[in-house]
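Reviewers of the previous submission asked for a worked example of the structure-prediction workflow described in the proposal, so we include one complete record here. The input consisted solely of the amino acid sequence. No template or homolog information was supplied to the procedure at any stage.
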Amino acid sequence: MKRMAFWLRVAVLFLVRSGRVTLVLALMIFTAVTALVFLSSLATGVNDAMIRNTVGLYTGHISGANLPAALTPETLQVDGVRRVLRRYPIPGMLRAGSHLVPVTLVAVAPAAEAAMTGLPRKVIDGRYLAPASDQILLSAYLAEQLGVTTGSSLFFVDGRTQSEDGFTVSGIYRTEVDRLDYGVAFVAERERDADREPWQAAIFLDAGASPERVTARLEKRVPGDAVFQSWLDRMPDLRQLIDLNRVSMNLVTLLVFSVVAIGVACAFVVVVLKNLREYGIMRSMGVTVGDVACLIGAEILFLSILAALGGVLAGGLIVGLVAHTGIDLTVFTSHNRYFTLSGIIYPRATVYALAIPPLMAVGFSLLAAIWPIALIAHKKVADILRMV
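From that input alone, the workflow returned the following structure tokens.
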């Protein structure tokens, strides 16, 4: 133990004496860790934004289908559920003059929808639905197909009962999401809609709630033909994109610290060559190769740990400052369906973002110690002394 403490003390002295090299290497590791902590947090923020935009536009974190009329939204309020929106899909045809278009008319509660979804913000002409009204909300595509504008009248023919209802166009929206922009229209929920089966649910979760766990709870609570799907199952493309972001971030981290490790190794080789006389004298005094390896390893370990911790603190501070205002990337995401509501990214520091960069910095730095250690180990003491 005393021997180890001695070499650790010597390692600190060597680092202090090689002040310029120590500072450059520490700055290199510090900068790399700081940048990667921020980039990892930013990647997490991008994933959060894609999920937030996708589920917040209309669908919610979990979609429920085939729900019986006797089932109330309160029944679906299990642990982790923030709110349940009830919707009644009605297949049929929209008619305006000689124009006829097949649609699924969705009866909704306008106030609840406006409070929880982003669809009202996508209205480009007119306004969103008023509660208990004979208004209809159309997509820009349907409005063009029917040849109507805000304030126009049209009729809906129920595909099941063949009954006909008249509506006035309250607004026209565009989301850039095919599922909503083609073949769907919205009207305000009426009392008679409660007798229609089945109904659908958009289920919004509390922050941090697991969609898989909540879905399992809902399936246990509502047996029968009811179907619940979380966004993870409903949107495998988004799930793959998030996984791709994580893999890409891991590759970037690996590449960055590979370069840093090469820099550390080269710098320490220079330090070893500069102090070759001291190492030769130590070897002639009976210091073993293991002791030399311990000395060089301790130098790199001290340096990398201190620089990495400083990088974590700096990176976390930057993330904390930026997270309050966010980074507006609307210019680069305006046509991306995963950023249809907002292009603002809020970086979020996770355990992964704060732990992986410093651990990789220390690990790769220790690997970098192999080169200078091997340089000393493969030279005989007499050769080292003759060289100096």
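DSSP finds 14 helices and twelve strands in the chain. We consider this example representative of the routine output the project will generate in years two and three.
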